[in-house]
Amino acid sequence: MMTQMAREIAEQPEAVARTLDQLRPLRPELARLAHGTRHVLFVARGSSDNACVYGRYLLETHAHRMAALAAPSVATHYRAAVDLSDTLVICVSQSGETREIVETLEWATAQGARTVAVTNDGTSSLARAADLTLVTHAGRELAVPATKTYTTQLAAMAILATSVAPDPHALDADLARVPAEMAQLIERRDGVDEAVEALAATTETLVTGRGLLLGTSLEIALKLEETCLRPVRGLSYADLRHGPIAVVDADMAAVVVAPQDGPVLGGLTEVAVSLRERGTRTIGIGGDDAFARACAVRMPGPNLPEPVAPLAAVVPGQLMVEALARRLGLNPDSPRGLSKVTQTDG
Question: Domain map of the chain by residue range?
């Protein structure tokens, strides 16, 4: 019997296509709202935070706008008085009802910021409080682990970043190919069963990536933790090399997420080689032929250039997590102790 999580993974190509179509016309309005600002701050938690990691990298590498991830507690607990009059604040929440995120947007407004909400509910508290709302068109998501709400947030990040880029349409042809690439990955499921067996053989897991796909790595690590109930470390490979690699051994599985091109691919291939030399069960997602040879198991990624690859590169990881949960006798639709809307405090 197909799980709800599997159904919602399968709905992603259409959901992402809808979201791109609905949000593309908002580019001029986003550009007007951002005009005159010098800084961009993202506010989110959980999977939404991982989507913001992609948004930050895309803004900086493609739109040449510096961005950062804000700490909501600066607003909700410390109530710091800071000048945000030259700042665009992007608050992201799939439900739009996480009180911490709503309060942070309200605080940012009081500090002079211009605000954008990214949410799957255009009538939510977050949407009502923002200057402009990007509504993701995922449809209702019933499984607790975010899948289609996450990838539609990535679509919103792509629209946001391109709206303030020198050429807003430069990535449009590649974005148009994303839904078909997602559908192909879902249909083929290449390497998923082998990856599940490698992960099931150990309780110690590391997930690593870098650059535009770092958010994808962190999202896969989060999904493994919340859905399969396993402690998982998600790290940039740069951070991995600065100490944590010392604990990697043959008792561990490592998932390495790589683009098919771009400046970080060579380093990720070297990391995959190093991990395998330590006896680690190395599972690769994406990459090129050299990367595939460096991994014990490889799940192909999308045939997309690095700037838009994150919209589809998470799909093999989602398939792997859903199948691993079933392999372990767990219900991926309703992980222990979690609910669809999470409140940070009490």
Answer: 4-170, 185-327
